[in-house]
Amino acid sequence: AQRKALDVLNTVGLSNSVLRLIERRNRVDTWIKYVGMIATIVILYLFIKWTR
Prior knowledge:
Blueprint lengths: L1 H11 L3 H36 L1
């Protein structure tokens, strides 16, 4: 699905550098999402341990 979307954007006229920038941004957003998930779990665990 992502490749198809990039093909459509390429035919519309977005340059390859812009497409690469979008892909890199997507990768960074994915890292931020997973780090946030792990941090939330750790904080919840520490909060539960602290309140007991």
